[in-house]
Design brief:
By secondary structure, the protein is mainly beta. It has a single domain, classed as TolB, C-terminal domain (Neuraminidase). The strands form six sheets. The chain has a five-stranded antiparallel beta sheet with strand order 10-11-12-13-14, with no helix packed on it. Strands 1-25-24-23 form a four-stranded antiparallel beta sheet, with no helix packed on it. A four-stranded antiparallel beta sheet has the order 2-3-4-5, with no helix packed on it. The protein starts with a helix and ends with a strand.
Length: 405
């Protein structure tokens, strides 16, 4: 039978030990609990340190999905868009890809959009328009500028040519397709010239805001050389244009207003790549708009993108040089990092736009037929619906690819 003293003084097992109080034992257990807690925290910190620093470190597999060449021979895949809804001929998660070249491999002459369905692994034709479309100044050559709205409308840019160079470049236009691939509207005008970069979108259903770069203003043919560099002359007239749309139910979107929110980006003609201009466009959660300028080898940021009433010029510098090599298309991950396709090699680069740190580079097209490997092969990029992988195209072999964990 325990007495009060025995409750206050735990039994001493060792012959030479001295009884200790419960207060001392409480202190000892607090220390032990703290040690366990610190040990657990140490394991957590170690585990956290072992976690990937960015998105690209989780990507380990690159899989060819399908050829993007159409029955009419169109090739050179550019834009990639993942369908946000099921409507018409489109299912949620379908991948739309357009072609910039025709069967003769002339740039600025592609007229088709193809559709890849992940569930069936089939690639089919989604839309096609005549190359000489009178509503579009200069005709049709579908570019990296493409999006699909929640309402089902597909909008794509055209920067056309008749001989595959900017010497015959037309001003181009924006084409609107219904979800069954029928061409229903064309937008053209003085602010639209060479719709080029992949679109960023704010989509509210009955209204939408589009951001598109225009790289065609004042660009000469590739034969006009800069005497200092002996390359085609660089013109700094490319813009970022914000379009405000109304989307009436059951009717094509209506263009309400246009505002230039950025200008002064570099552009020039190129025989191999048709032309260079601001290509990668991405909108951050804080309304900061990011732009890749390939010729200046940089990424810049324009604040208050959806509300500003005047141009911010090129905006604030985010990253320049380093792993970047002619940065082209760009997409933002769920963590707020930028994935940027290089034009000068087959790498995709991950950038933290807040710190400007270039986190990681991964070869996604190591084709050694080009120098450097993959040079000029990468254009469109788009995240999968779950945000854990991304689609891209290899235009050297005209294929749609997926990069995944």
């Amino acid at each position: 039978m325990f007495t009060k003293d025995r409750l206050m003084t735990p039994r001493c097992i060792s012959k030479n030990c001295k009884p200790v109080s419960f207060e001392w034992m409480a202190i000892r257990w607090r220390h032990k609990a703290l040690a366990i807690l610190l040990g657990t925290w140490s394991v957590f910190v170690t585990a956290a340190a072992a976690e990937p620093k960015g998105f690209l470190e989780t990507i380990h597999h690159h899989v060819t999905l399908a050829s993007t060449v159409t029955d009419n021979g169109d090739e050179n895949p550019y834009a990639i868009v993942v369908a946000p809804v099921s409507i018409g001929a489109i299912e949620t998660g379908d991948v739309l890809v357009d072609n910039f070249n025709n069967i003769s491999n002339l740039q600025g002459t592609g007229t088709t959009i193809v559709k890849y369905r992940p569930s069936t692994k089939q690639m089919t034709l989604f839309a096609q328009v005549p190359q000489k479309l009178k509503e579009c100044p200069g005709g049709v050559g579908l570019t990296t500028a493409m999006t699909m709205l929640k309402s089902g409308w597909v909008i794509v840019g055209s920067t056309p040519s008749t001989d595959g160079t900017t010497a015959t470049k037309g001003d181009g236009c924006l084409l609107v397709f219904d979800p069954n691939g029928h061409h229903v509207a064309t937008w053209a005008g003085p602010t639209i010239n060479g719709p080029w970069g992949n679109m960023a979108v704010i989509d509210k259903g009955d209204s939408a805001t589009l951001f598109i770069s225009m790289a065609g203003f004042g660009i000469p043919g590739p034969e006009v050389l800069d005497p200092a560099t002996h390359y085609p002359v660089t013109v700094r007239k490319a813009t970022v244009l914000r379009l405000e749309l109304s989307v009436p139910e059951g009717k094509p979107p209506v263009l309400l207003s246009q505002t230039v929110i950025g200008d002064g980006f570099a552009q020039r003609a190129d025989r191999d790549n048709f032309m260079f201009g601001p290509t990668g466009l991405a909108l951050g959660a804080d309304d900061t708009f990011y732009v890749t300028d390939g010729l200046d080898n940089e990424i810049t940021a324009i604040p208050e993108a959806s509300t500003r009433t005047a141009s911010a010029g090129k905006g604030k510098l985010v990253a320049q040089g380093g792993l970047l090599g002619w940065p082209l298309s760009m997409v933002m991950t769920s963590a707020g990092h930028l994935l940027v396709c290089n034009g000068k090699n087959g790498q995709v680069i991950e950038v933290d736009p807040v710190s400007g740190k270039q986190i990681y580079a991964q070869w996604i097209d190591p084709d050694q037929a080009q120098s450097p490997p993959g040079n000029g092969d990468l254009f469109g990029i788009a995240l999968t619906p779950d945000g854990k992988a991304f689609y891209y195209v290899e235009d050297d072999v005209n294929t749609l690819m997926i990069a995944k964990p």
